[in-house]
Amino acid sequence: MDHTATLALFDRQMRCEARSDGPGSRVEHTGPVVRLTGPAHAWNGILWSGLDEAGADAVIAEQIRHFTAHGRAFEWKVYGHDRPADLPQRLLAAGFAAEEQETLMVADAAALPTAVELPDGVELVPVTDAAGVRLVTEVHDRAFGGDSSHIGRQLLDRLANTPDTVAAVLAMAGDEPVSAARLELYPGTDFAGLWGGGTVEPWRGKGLYRALVAFRTRIAVERGHRFVQVDAADTSRPILARLGFAALTTTTPYVYAPEGL
């Protein structure tokens, strides 16, 4: 893989030319910014920015005014190669809070293993309805902590309105959901995204994460996507590297939450 060319392709297709990811959401190109504005439970934020030092603070202030006027908290997704170099410091000064840094990892989908190997007594079940979505949110709540209900609402929206853009899967040990993940498909692009990948504590270290990667990669290949990408936490990065993913850059969410939200 040519890392520089792949990152440039990712920036163009997934950031500069991004499309709406659900009902009620719209992508807007405003000056040097590409942003996504949608319902409160959806992802709202800045997908791409081409800022210079002279105008960066004014553009940041403009985005705060836009999302605040809509009553939305929002995320400015900063990649390690974004400019100006001090963009993170400018966002912090404007009232954003930084979340944990992750690593953008990409692999050639056709080169990844797609054989699904599961522990005894576990089966993978596609998620197609509200009952399955509830189990996905239950797994995420247990695996990651916090409240994952917004993810459930987003998933329901997409299954109902744009089912060709998402695939979700549960690992079931009998009647117990023990792991869950989703695949986000971007028709017309070279990329498919692996998201979620949460496993409850007693079932970690048994190969479920790798099995869910293989299952989703197979779907991505069948749908004609060349690459699969992950925003990888530190815990996932070694597993993905062993499977054949390459680290292209870092990505850090900077979140702005107006008072009262």
Automatic annotation (TrEMBL):
PROSITE patterns: GNAT. It comes from the Bacteria. Keywords: Acyltransferase, Transferase. Residues 122-261 form the N-acetyltransferase domain. Its EC number is 2.3.-.-. The lineage of its organism: Bacteria, Bacillati, Actinomycetota, Actinomycetes, Kitasatosporales. SUPFAM superfamilies: Acyl-CoA N-acyltransferases (Nat). InterPro entries: Acyl_CoA_acyltransferase, GNAT_dom. Signal peptide: none annotated. This is GNAT family N-acetyltransferase. GO terms for molecular function: acyltransferase activity.
